[in-house]
Amino acid sequence: MRDTQPLLSVRNLTVAFPSLKDLVPAVRNVSFDVGREKVGIIGESGSGKSTTGRAIMRLHPGKTQITADRMQFQGLDLLSQSERQMRAIRGHRIAMILQDPKYSLNPVMTVGEQIAETAILHENLSRREARLRTIEMLEKVHIRDPERVMGLYPHEVSGGMGQRIMISMMLIAKPALIIADEPTSALDVSVRQQVLTILDELVTGNDMGLLFISHDLNLVRSFCDRVLIMYAGRVVEELRASELDQARHPYTQGLLEALPSLTDPKDRLAVLRRDPAWAEV
Amino acid sequence: MQDRNMIEVAGLNVSFGRRPRVNHVVRGVDLVIAQGECFGLVGESGCGKSTILGAIAGRVKDWQGTISIAGVPVRPDRRELAQLRQQQIVFQDPFGSLHPRHTIGRILAEPLEIHGMDDRDGRIDRALDQVGLPRRFRFRYPHQLSGGQRQRVAIARALILDPQILLLDEPTSALDVSIQAEILNLLKDLREERRLTYLLVSHDMAVVTHLCDRIAVMQKGQFVEVATREAMVRGDLTHPYTRLLREGSLGYRPAASVAAE
Protein backbone atom coordinates (compact mmCIF):
# COMPACT_ATOMS: atom_id res chain seq x y z
CA MET A 1 0.00 0.00 0.00
CA ARG A 2 1.34 3.38 -0.95
CA ASP A 3 0.54 6.19 1.40
CA THR A 4 -1.09 9.18 -0.16
CA GLN A 5 0.86 11.78 1.82
CA PRO A 6 3.68 13.26 -0.22
CA LEU A 7 7.19 12.70 1.15
CA LEU A 8 8.11 16.28 0.60
CA SER A 9 5.77 19.20 0.41
CA VAL A 10 7.03 22.67 -0.45
CA ARG A 11 4.87 25.80 -0.60
CA ASN A 12 6.09 29.23 -1.67
CA LEU A 13 9.77 28.55 -1.18
CA THR A 14 11.92 31.63 -1.67
CA VAL A 15 15.70 31.59 -1.45
CA ALA A 16 17.57 34.89 -1.47
CA PHE A 17 21.30 35.53 -1.27
CA PRO A 18 22.58 38.70 0.33
CA SER A 19 24.63 41.01 -1.87
CA LEU A 20 26.39 44.19 -0.81
CA LYS A 21 23.27 46.26 -1.26
CA ASP A 22 20.26 44.02 -0.94
CA LEU A 23 18.93 40.50 -1.25
CA VAL A 24 19.05 38.73 -4.59
CA PRO A 25 16.26 36.19 -4.91
CA ALA A 26 17.38 33.04 -6.78
CA VAL A 27 14.23 31.04 -6.15
CA ARG A 28 10.85 32.72 -5.90
CA ASN A 29 7.59 31.26 -4.57
CA VAL A 30 8.21 27.71 -5.68
CA SER A 31 5.65 25.09 -4.68
CA PHE A 32 5.70 21.38 -5.37
CA ASP A 33 5.21 17.94 -3.84
CA VAL A 34 7.32 14.85 -4.20
CA GLY A 35 5.75 11.49 -3.44
CA ARG A 36 7.27 8.07 -3.96
CA GLU A 37 7.96 8.91 -7.57
CA LYS A 38 10.55 10.45 -9.87
CA VAL A 39 10.11 14.19 -10.22
CA GLY A 40 12.32 16.11 -12.61
CA ILE A 41 13.29 19.77 -12.43
CA ILE A 42 14.32 21.20 -15.79
CA GLY A 43 15.81 24.60 -16.34
CA GLU A 44 18.71 26.46 -17.87
CA SER A 45 21.71 27.68 -15.93
CA GLY A 46 20.71 30.21 -13.32
CA SER A 47 17.07 29.18 -13.24
CA GLY A 48 17.30 28.15 -9.60
CA LYS A 49 16.97 24.39 -9.96
CA SER A 50 20.08 23.49 -7.96
CA THR A 51 19.36 26.21 -5.42
CA THR A 52 15.96 24.62 -4.83
CA GLY A 53 17.55 21.20 -4.30
CA ARG A 54 20.12 22.55 -1.88
CA ALA A 55 17.52 24.59 0.02
CA ILE A 56 15.64 21.39 0.88
CA MET A 57 18.82 20.02 2.48
CA ARG A 58 19.56 23.47 3.95
CA LEU A 59 23.02 23.38 2.46
CA HIS A 60 23.28 27.08 1.72
CA PRO A 61 25.64 29.40 3.62
CA GLY A 62 24.31 30.85 6.86
CA LYS A 63 23.44 34.29 5.52
CA THR A 64 21.11 32.88 2.88
CA GLN A 65 17.49 33.72 3.48
CA ILE A 66 15.23 30.71 3.03
CA THR A 67 11.54 31.30 3.58
CA ALA A 68 8.55 29.14 2.84
CA ASP A 69 4.95 28.78 3.93
CA ARG A 70 5.70 25.11 4.22
CA MET A 71 8.69 22.85 3.71
CA GLN A 72 7.66 19.54 5.17
CA PHE A 73 9.41 16.23 4.87
CA GLN A 74 7.56 13.21 6.26
CA GLY A 75 5.66 15.45 8.62
CA LEU A 76 8.82 17.25 9.75
CA ASP A 77 9.18 20.98 9.30
CA LEU A 78 12.60 21.28 7.70
CA LEU A 79 12.88 25.01 8.28
CA SER A 80 12.54 24.81 12.04
CA GLN A 81 15.01 21.96 12.56
CA SER A 82 18.16 22.84 14.43
CA GLU A 83 21.49 22.39 12.69
CA ARG A 84 22.07 19.30 14.83
CA GLN A 85 18.73 17.82 13.81
CA MET A 86 19.47 18.60 10.18
CA ARG A 87 22.71 16.63 10.40
CA ALA A 88 20.69 13.59 11.38
CA ILE A 89 18.46 14.07 8.34
CA ARG A 90 21.13 14.79 5.74
CA GLY A 91 22.53 11.60 4.30
CA HIS A 92 20.20 9.54 6.46
CA ARG A 93 16.67 10.40 5.42
CA ILE A 94 17.40 12.74 2.52
CA ALA A 95 20.47 12.05 0.40
CA MET A 96 22.04 13.99 -2.41
CA ILE A 97 23.84 12.75 -5.51
CA LEU A 98 26.03 15.36 -7.16
CA GLN A 99 27.18 15.82 -10.72
CA ASP A 100 30.81 14.90 -10.77
CA PRO A 101 32.23 12.05 -8.70
CA LYS A 102 35.71 13.39 -9.39
CA TYR A 103 35.05 16.42 -7.20
CA SER A 104 32.52 15.13 -4.73
CA LEU A 105 34.29 12.04 -3.41
CA ASN A 106 36.98 12.50 -0.77
CA PRO A 107 40.28 12.02 -2.61
CA VAL A 108 42.26 10.86 0.44
CA MET A 109 39.86 8.20 1.68
CA THR A 110 39.33 4.80 0.10
CA VAL A 111 35.99 4.15 -1.51
CA GLY A 112 35.11 1.53 1.12
CA GLU A 113 35.82 3.85 4.05
CA GLN A 114 33.69 6.60 2.55
CA ILE A 115 30.68 4.39 1.98
CA ALA A 116 30.98 2.75 5.39
CA GLU A 117 31.26 6.14 7.10
CA THR A 118 27.62 6.93 6.36
CA ALA A 119 26.44 3.65 7.83
CA ILE A 120 28.62 3.97 10.93
CA LEU A 121 27.53 7.56 11.50
CA HIS A 122 23.81 7.20 10.99
CA GLU A 123 23.08 3.64 12.01
CA ASN A 124 25.70 3.05 14.68
CA LEU A 125 26.94 -0.04 12.94
CA SER A 126 30.22 -1.61 13.95
CA ARG A 127 33.07 -1.46 11.45
CA ARG A 128 32.56 -5.12 10.61
CA GLU A 129 28.84 -4.74 10.01
CA ALA A 130 29.42 -1.56 8.01
CA ARG A 131 31.93 -3.41 5.85
CA LEU A 132 29.42 -6.13 5.06
CA ARG A 133 26.77 -3.52 4.25
CA THR A 134 29.24 -1.72 1.98
CA ILE A 135 29.95 -4.88 0.03
CA GLU A 136 26.25 -5.51 -0.28
CA MET A 137 25.64 -1.95 -1.52
CA LEU A 138 28.42 -2.13 -4.09
CA GLU A 139 26.90 -5.33 -5.41
CA LYS A 140 23.55 -3.57 -5.70
CA VAL A 141 25.07 -0.96 -7.99
CA HIS A 142 26.48 -3.77 -10.13
CA ILE A 143 30.12 -3.46 -9.17
CA ARG A 144 31.57 -6.86 -9.91
CA ASP A 145 34.49 -7.11 -7.54
CA PRO A 146 33.41 -5.11 -4.47
CA GLU A 147 36.21 -6.28 -2.18
CA ARG A 148 38.83 -4.98 -4.58
CA VAL A 149 36.98 -1.73 -5.37
CA MET A 150 36.59 -0.93 -1.66
CA GLY A 151 40.32 -0.58 -1.31
CA LEU A 152 40.67 1.84 -4.22
CA TYR A 153 40.96 5.62 -4.01
CA PRO A 154 38.58 7.79 -6.07
CA HIS A 155 41.27 8.65 -8.65
CA GLU A 156 41.67 4.96 -9.41
CA VAL A 157 38.11 4.45 -10.60
CA SER A 158 36.40 5.57 -13.82
CA GLY A 159 33.70 8.25 -13.95
CA GLY A 160 30.87 5.76 -14.30
CA MET A 161 32.14 3.63 -11.45
CA GLY A 162 32.66 6.77 -9.34
CA GLN A 163 29.03 7.73 -9.86
CA ARG A 164 27.86 4.24 -8.93
CA ILE A 165 29.98 4.46 -5.79
CA MET A 166 28.32 7.75 -4.95
CA ILE A 167 24.89 6.22 -5.46
CA SER A 168 25.76 3.31 -3.17
CA MET A 169 27.03 5.77 -0.57
CA MET A 170 23.79 7.73 -0.74
CA LEU A 171 21.57 4.68 -0.53
CA ILE A 172 23.35 2.79 2.23
CA ALA A 173 21.38 4.59 4.94
CA LYS A 174 18.12 3.86 3.05
CA PRO A 175 16.92 7.45 2.68
CA ALA A 176 13.29 8.14 1.83
CA LEU A 177 14.15 10.93 -0.59
CA ILE A 178 17.05 11.37 -2.97
CA ILE A 179 17.96 14.66 -4.58
CA ALA A 180 20.08 14.02 -7.66
CA ASP A 181 21.66 17.15 -9.12
CA GLU A 182 22.70 16.42 -12.71
CA PRO A 183 23.82 12.91 -11.72
CA THR A 184 24.77 11.80 -15.22
CA SER A 185 25.90 14.99 -16.95
CA ALA A 186 29.60 14.17 -16.53
CA LEU A 187 29.19 10.65 -17.91
CA ASP A 188 29.46 9.19 -21.40
CA VAL A 189 26.27 8.04 -23.10
CA SER A 190 26.74 4.30 -22.64
CA VAL A 191 27.69 4.62 -18.97
CA ARG A 192 24.85 7.06 -18.41
CA GLN A 193 22.28 4.48 -19.40
CA GLN A 194 23.75 2.02 -16.94
CA VAL A 195 23.82 4.48 -14.03
CA LEU A 196 20.23 5.54 -14.71
CA THR A 197 19.07 1.94 -14.80
CA ILE A 198 20.63 1.32 -11.40
CA LEU A 199 19.13 4.50 -9.97
CA ASP A 200 15.74 3.57 -11.37
CA GLU A 201 15.93 0.05 -9.93
CA LEU A 202 16.87 1.27 -6.48
CA VAL A 203 14.39 4.13 -6.30
CA THR A 204 11.48 2.09 -7.61
CA GLY A 205 12.47 -1.07 -5.75
CA ASN A 206 12.80 0.62 -2.38
CA ASP A 207 9.81 2.90 -2.83
CA MET A 208 11.80 6.10 -2.51
CA GLY A 209 11.16 9.56 -3.83
CA LEU A 210 13.57 11.12 -6.31
CA LEU A 211 14.04 14.75 -7.20
CA PHE A 212 16.01 14.72 -10.43
CA ILE A 213 17.61 18.04 -11.41
CA SER A 214 18.75 18.26 -15.00
CA HIS A 215 19.03 20.46 -18.06
CA ASP A 216 18.54 17.52 -20.43
CA LEU A 217 14.96 17.54 -21.69
CA ASN A 218 15.10 14.20 -23.46
CA LEU A 219 16.55 12.53 -20.42
CA VAL A 220 14.00 13.91 -17.96
CA ARG A 221 11.17 13.22 -20.34
CA SER A 222 12.06 9.55 -20.57
CA PHE A 223 13.25 8.98 -17.00
CA CYS A 224 10.87 10.88 -14.71
CA ASP A 225 7.17 10.64 -13.92
CA ARG A 226 6.54 14.34 -13.52
CA VAL A 227 8.45 17.45 -14.59
CA LEU A 228 8.70 20.96 -13.18
CA ILE A 229 10.04 23.58 -15.56
CA MET A 230 11.89 26.46 -13.93
CA TYR A 231 12.66 29.84 -15.37
CA ALA A 232 14.22 32.80 -13.55
CA GLY A 233 13.67 31.25 -10.15
CA ARG A 234 10.04 30.28 -10.69
CA VAL A 235 8.25 27.13 -11.66
CA VAL A 236 6.52 28.17 -14.87
CA GLU A 237 4.89 24.85 -15.62
CA GLU A 238 4.32 21.41 -14.18
CA LEU A 239 3.51 18.45 -16.39
CA ARG A 240 3.46 14.69 -16.57
CA ALA A 241 6.73 13.74 -18.25
CA SER A 242 4.90 11.87 -20.97
CA GLU A 243 2.90 15.00 -21.79
CA LEU A 244 5.87 17.34 -22.19
CA ASP A 245 5.02 17.73 -25.87
CA GLN A 246 1.73 19.34 -24.92
CA ALA A 247 3.44 22.02 -22.85
CA ARG A 248 1.46 25.23 -22.78
CA HIS A 249 3.98 27.72 -21.47
CA PRO A 250 5.85 29.52 -24.27
CA TYR A 251 9.17 28.98 -22.47
CA THR A 252 8.75 25.21 -22.35
CA GLN A 253 7.60 25.20 -25.96
CA GLY A 254 10.58 27.34 -26.93
CA LEU A 255 13.02 25.03 -25.18
CA LEU A 256 11.60 21.98 -26.94
CA GLU A 257 11.82 23.69 -30.31
CA ALA A 258 15.39 24.87 -29.74
CA LEU A 259 16.52 21.31 -29.17
CA PRO A 260 18.12 19.66 -32.21
CA SER A 261 16.38 16.37 -32.90
CA LEU A 262 18.12 13.20 -33.93
CA THR A 263 15.05 11.64 -35.46
CA ASP A 264 13.42 14.69 -37.01
CA PRO A 265 16.11 17.24 -37.91
CA LYS A 266 15.12 20.71 -39.03
CA ASP A 267 17.15 22.97 -41.23
CA ARG A 268 17.16 25.80 -38.72
CA LEU A 269 16.49 25.68 -35.03
CA ALA A 270 13.92 27.95 -33.50
CA VAL A 271 15.52 30.60 -31.34
CA LEU A 272 13.92 31.21 -27.99
CA ARG A 273 12.57 34.72 -27.55
CA ARG A 274 12.46 35.54 -23.89
CA ASP A 275 9.47 37.46 -22.66
CA PRO A 276 10.20 39.59 -19.57
CA ALA A 277 6.71 38.73 -18.36
CA TRP A 278 7.80 35.11 -17.73
CA ALA A 279 9.96 36.29 -14.88
CA GLU A 280 7.05 38.12 -13.26
CA VAL A 281 4.65 36.45 -10.93
CA MET B 1 34.63 23.31 -57.39
CA GLN B 2 32.50 21.58 -54.79
CA ASP B 3 34.47 18.39 -55.09
CA ARG B 4 37.94 19.61 -54.20
CA ASN B 5 39.21 17.78 -51.17
CA MET B 6 39.95 20.19 -48.38
CA ILE B 7 41.23 17.79 -45.75
CA GLU B 8 42.90 14.48 -46.55
CA VAL B 9 44.18 12.31 -43.75
CA ALA B 10 45.69 8.86 -44.33
CA GLY B 11 47.07 6.35 -41.87
CA LEU B 12 47.12 8.85 -39.01
CA ASN B 13 48.68 7.49 -35.82
CA VAL B 14 49.26 9.46 -32.65
CA SER B 15 50.76 8.18 -29.44
CA PHE B 16 51.70 9.97 -26.26
CA GLY B 17 54.29 8.99 -23.67
CA ARG B 18 57.43 6.91 -23.92
CA ARG B 19 58.02 3.22 -23.87
CA PRO B 20 57.11 1.16 -21.99
CA ARG B 21 54.07 3.30 -21.18
CA VAL B 22 52.98 4.39 -24.62
CA ASN B 23 49.39 5.51 -24.99
CA HIS B 24 48.34 4.88 -28.58
CA VAL B 25 45.52 7.42 -28.94
CA VAL B 26 44.78 7.48 -32.67
CA ARG B 27 45.18 4.21 -34.56
CA GLY B 28 45.32 4.42 -38.33
CA VAL B 29 42.61 6.91 -39.20
CA ASP B 30 41.77 7.71 -42.86
CA LEU B 31 39.58 10.66 -43.64
CA VAL B 32 38.71 12.75 -46.70
CA ILE B 33 36.58 15.89 -46.37
CA ALA B 34 35.44 17.86 -49.42
CA GLN B 35 35.41 21.63 -49.57
CA GLY B 36 32.23 22.99 -48.03
CA GLU B 37 31.44 19.73 -46.29
CA CYS B 38 30.72 19.36 -42.61
CA PHE B 39 32.18 16.23 -41.13
CA GLY B 40 31.43 15.07 -37.59
CA LEU B 41 33.46 13.02 -35.15
CA VAL B 42 31.60 11.41 -32.27
CA GLY B 43 32.73 9.07 -29.56
CA GLU B 44 33.21 8.89 -25.83
CA SER B 45 35.79 10.72 -23.77
CA GLY B 46 39.30 9.56 -24.49
CA CYS B 47 38.53 7.98 -27.87
CA GLY B 48 40.94 10.30 -29.69
CA LYS B 49 38.56 12.65 -31.47
CA SER B 50 40.08 15.87 -30.16
CA THR B 51 43.57 14.53 -30.88
CA ILE B 52 42.72 14.18 -34.57
CA LEU B 53 41.57 17.78 -34.52
CA GLY B 54 44.81 18.78 -32.81
CA ALA B 55 46.96 17.02 -35.41
CA ILE B 56 45.14 18.75 -38.27
CA ALA B 57 45.36 22.12 -36.52
CA GLY B 58 49.07 21.76 -35.77
CA ARG B 59 48.59 21.62 -32.02
CA VAL B 60 49.65 18.00 -31.75
CA LYS B 61 53.11 17.93 -33.26
CA ASP B 62 54.02 14.28 -33.05
CA TRP B 63 52.06 12.09 -35.45
CA GLN B 64 52.70 9.55 -38.19
CA GLY B 65 50.83 9.29 -41.47
CA THR B 66 49.92 11.96 -43.99
CA ILE B 67 47.76 15.04 -43.70
CA SER B 68 47.04 17.32 -46.66
CA ILE B 69 45.18 20.59 -46.42
CA ALA B 70 43.75 21.94 -49.68
CA GLY B 71 45.93 19.47 -51.58
CA VAL B 72 49.18 20.49 -49.88
CA PRO B 73 50.84 17.94 -47.56
CA VAL B 74 51.80 19.31 -44.13
CA ARG B 75 54.64 18.17 -41.87
CA PRO B 76 54.09 17.25 -38.26
CA ASP B 77 56.97 19.21 -36.79
CA ARG B 78 57.14 22.42 -38.81
CA ARG B 79 54.22 24.32 -40.31
CA GLU B 80 54.36 27.62 -42.15
CA LEU B 81 52.35 30.49 -40.65
CA ALA B 82 50.47 30.88 -43.91
CA GLN B 83 49.45 27.23 -43.71
CA LEU B 84 48.37 27.44 -40.07
CA ARG B 85 46.05 30.26 -41.02
CA GLN B 86 43.99 27.93 -43.18
CA GLN B 87 42.46 26.07 -40.26
CA GLN B 88 41.30 27.59 -36.99
CA ILE B 89 39.91 25.99 -33.86
CA VAL B 90 36.90 26.93 -31.75
CA PHE B 91 37.19 25.35 -28.31
CA GLN B 92 34.58 23.98 -25.98
CA ASP B 93 34.69 26.26 -23.02
CA PRO B 94 34.28 29.96 -23.80
CA PHE B 95 35.18 30.69 -20.18
CA GLY B 96 38.59 29.11 -20.44
CA SER B 97 39.53 29.90 -24.02
CA LEU B 98 39.43 33.71 -23.82
CA HIS B 99 42.08 35.62 -21.89
CA PRO B 100 40.29 37.04 -18.85
CA ARG B 101 42.38 40.23 -18.72
CA HIS B 102 42.34 41.12 -22.41
CA THR B 103 39.53 43.11 -23.99
CA ILE B 104 37.61 41.49 -26.83
CA GLY B 105 39.38 43.90 -29.20
CA ARG B 106 42.79 42.74 -28.04
CA ILE B 107 41.75 39.08 -28.17
CA LEU B 108 40.69 39.55 -31.79
CA ALA B 109 43.78 41.63 -32.69
CA GLU B 110 46.24 39.02 -31.48
CA PRO B 111 45.91 36.58 -34.39
CA LEU B 112 46.14 39.54 -36.79
CA GLU B 113 49.41 40.65 -35.19
CA ILE B 114 50.87 37.16 -35.26
CA HIS B 115 50.03 36.76 -38.93
CA GLY B 116 51.04 40.33 -39.82
CA MET B 117 47.70 41.29 -41.34
CA ASP B 118 46.68 44.85 -42.11
CA ASP B 119 43.44 46.80 -41.62
CA ARG B 120 43.10 45.44 -38.10
CA ASP B 121 40.32 47.79 -36.98
CA GLY B 122 38.24 47.04 -40.03
CA ARG B 123 38.74 43.31 -39.70
CA ILE B 124 37.75 43.33 -36.03
CA ASP B 125 34.57 45.28 -36.78
CA ARG B 126 33.65 42.96 -39.62
CA ALA B 127 34.35 39.85 -37.53
CA LEU B 128 32.05 41.14 -34.77
CA ASP B 129 29.37 41.92 -37.37
CA GLN B 130 29.61 38.42 -38.76
CA VAL B 131 28.99 36.70 -35.46
CA GLY B 132 26.16 39.09 -34.60
CA LEU B 133 27.83 41.05 -31.82
CA PRO B 134 27.67 44.85 -31.56
CA ARG B 135 30.93 46.62 -32.50
CA ARG B 136 31.18 48.33 -29.13
CA PHE B 137 31.85 44.91 -27.57
CA ARG B 138 35.51 45.24 -28.55
CA PHE B 139 36.04 47.40 -25.48
CA ARG B 140 34.60 44.83 -23.10
CA TYR B 141 36.22 42.06 -21.11
CA PRO B 142 35.14 38.39 -21.33
CA HIS B 143 33.61 38.43 -17.85
CA GLN B 144 31.18 41.13 -19.01
CA LEU B 145 29.77 38.75 -21.63
CA SER B 146 27.39 35.80 -21.34
CA GLY B 147 28.48 32.30 -22.31
CA GLY B 148 26.82 32.49 -25.71
CA GLN B 149 28.36 35.89 -26.44
CA ARG B 150 31.77 34.57 -25.44
CA GLN B 151 31.42 31.63 -27.79
CA ARG B 152 30.59 34.14 -30.53
CA VAL B 153 33.85 35.93 -29.74
CA ALA B 154 35.72 32.61 -30.00
CA ILE B 155 34.14 32.04 -33.41
CA ALA B 156 35.02 35.59 -34.48
CA ARG B 157 38.63 34.99 -33.43
CA ALA B 158 38.74 31.87 -35.58
CA LEU B 159 37.16 33.63 -38.57
CA ILE B 160 39.23 36.79 -38.43
CA LEU B 161 42.13 35.13 -40.30
CA ASP B 162 39.85 34.15 -43.19
CA PRO B 163 40.46 30.42 -42.81
CA GLN B 164 39.02 27.81 -45.16
CA ILE B 165 38.49 25.30 -42.40
CA LEU B 166 36.93 25.60 -38.96
CA LEU B 167 37.80 22.89 -36.47
CA LEU B 168 35.03 22.86 -33.88
CA ASP B 169 35.78 21.09 -30.62
CA GLU B 170 32.49 20.67 -28.74
CA PRO B 171 31.48 24.25 -29.58
CA THR B 172 28.12 24.14 -27.81
CA SER B 173 28.45 21.67 -24.96
CA ALA B 174 29.06 24.36 -22.35
CA LEU B 175 25.94 26.27 -23.43
CA ASP B 176 22.26 26.14 -22.53
CA VAL B 177 19.84 24.63 -25.03
CA SER B 178 18.42 27.96 -26.19
CA ILE B 179 21.90 29.48 -26.64
CA GLN B 180 23.11 26.33 -28.35
CA ALA B 181 20.38 26.80 -30.97
CA GLU B 182 21.63 30.31 -31.72
CA ILE B 183 25.24 29.18 -32.12
CA LEU B 184 24.28 26.22 -34.30
CA ASN B 185 22.26 28.53 -36.56
CA LEU B 186 25.20 30.93 -36.73
CA LEU B 187 27.60 28.15 -37.69
CA LYS B 188 25.23 26.97 -40.39
CA ASP B 189 24.90 30.46 -41.87
CA LEU B 190 28.63 31.15 -41.80
CA ARG B 191 29.36 27.91 -43.57
CA GLU B 192 26.96 28.74 -46.37
CA GLU B 193 28.11 32.35 -46.73
CA ARG B 194 31.82 31.64 -46.72
CA ARG B 195 31.88 28.09 -48.11
CA LEU B 196 33.76 26.92 -45.05
CA THR B 197 34.71 23.33 -44.38
CA TYR B 198 33.86 22.12 -40.87
CA LEU B 199 35.25 19.33 -38.81
CA LEU B 200 33.05 19.06 -35.72
CA VAL B 201 33.87 17.06 -32.63
CA SER B 202 31.03 16.39 -30.22
CA HIS B 203 29.58 13.79 -27.93
CA ASP B 204 26.06 14.98 -28.66
CA MET B 205 24.61 12.91 -31.48
CA ALA B 206 21.73 15.31 -32.11
CA VAL B 207 24.07 18.28 -32.53
CA VAL B 208 26.36 16.38 -34.90
CA THR B 209 23.46 15.11 -36.94
CA HIS B 210 21.96 18.58 -37.12
CA LEU B 211 25.11 20.14 -38.56
CA CYS B 212 27.05 17.41 -40.38
CA ASP B 213 26.72 15.69 -43.74
CA ARG B 214 28.75 12.67 -42.67
CA ILE B 215 29.52 11.38 -39.20
CA ALA B 216 32.39 9.15 -38.11
CA VAL B 217 31.94 7.15 -34.94
CA MET B 218 35.16 6.56 -33.02
CA GLN B 219 36.06 4.01 -30.44
CA LYS B 220 39.54 3.49 -28.99
CA GLY B 221 41.29 5.59 -31.62
CA GLN B 222 39.64 4.05 -34.66
CA PHE B 223 36.63 4.74 -36.85
CA VAL B 224 34.11 1.98 -36.35
CA GLU B 225 31.60 3.46 -38.79
CA VAL B 226 31.12 6.45 -41.08
CA ALA B 227 27.43 7.21 -41.56
CA THR B 228 25.58 9.81 -43.59
CA ARG B 229 23.16 12.17 -41.88
CA GLU B 230 20.22 10.34 -43.45
CA ALA B 231 21.44 6.97 -42.15
CA MET B 232 21.85 8.45 -38.68
CA VAL B 233 18.34 9.92 -38.72
CA ARG B 234 16.78 6.67 -39.93
CA GLY B 235 18.86 4.59 -37.58
CA ASP B 236 20.19 2.66 -40.55
CA LEU B 237 23.48 1.78 -38.87
CA THR B 238 25.73 -1.24 -39.01
CA HIS B 239 27.98 -1.10 -35.96
CA PRO B 240 26.48 -1.97 -32.56
CA TYR B 241 28.47 0.81 -30.89
CA THR B 242 26.94 3.41 -33.21
CA ARG B 243 23.50 2.09 -32.37
CA LEU B 244 24.30 2.24 -28.67
CA LEU B 245 25.32 5.89 -28.94
CA ARG B 246 22.25 6.77 -30.98
CA GLU B 247 19.80 5.09 -28.64
CA GLY B 248 21.56 6.51 -25.62
CA SER B 249 21.07 10.04 -26.87
CA LEU B 250 17.36 9.53 -27.45
CA GLY B 251 16.84 9.35 -23.71
CA TYR B 252 16.47 6.74 -21.02
CA ARG B 253 15.13 3.33 -21.89
CA PRO B 254 13.45 1.87 -18.82
CA ALA B 255 14.46 -1.55 -19.94
CA ALA B 256 15.63 -4.94 -19.04
CA SER B 257 18.26 -4.11 -21.64
CA VAL B 258 20.88 -3.78 -18.96
CA ALA B 259 21.13 -7.10 -17.20
CA ALA B 260 19.47 -6.93 -13.83
CA GLU B 261 21.22 -9.37 -11.62
Automatic annotation (TrEMBL), chain A:
Lineage, broadest ranks: Bacteria, Pseudomonadati, Pseudomonadota, Alphaproteobacteria, Rhodobacterales
UniProt keyword terms in alphabetical order: ATP-binding, Cell membrane, Membrane, Nucleotide-binding, Transport
Residue ranges of every copy of the ABC transporter domain listed in the record: 8-257
Transmembrane intervals: none
CDD domains noted in UniProt: ABC_NikE_OppD_transporters
Stored InterPro entries: AAA+_ATPase, ABC_Ni/Peptide_Import, ABC_transporter-like_ATP-bd, P-loop_NTPase
The keyword Protease is assigned to this record: no
GO molecular function: ATP binding; ATP hydrolysis activity
Gene3D superfamilies: P-loop containing nucleotide triphosphate hydrolases
Subcellular location: Cell inner membrane
UniProt record similarity statement: Belongs to the ABC transporter superfamily.
BP term (GO), one: transmembrane transport
Matches recorded under Pfam families: ABC_tran
Membrane topology category: Peripheral membrane protein
GO annotations of cellular component type: plasma membrane
Protein name: ATP-binding cassette domain-containing protein
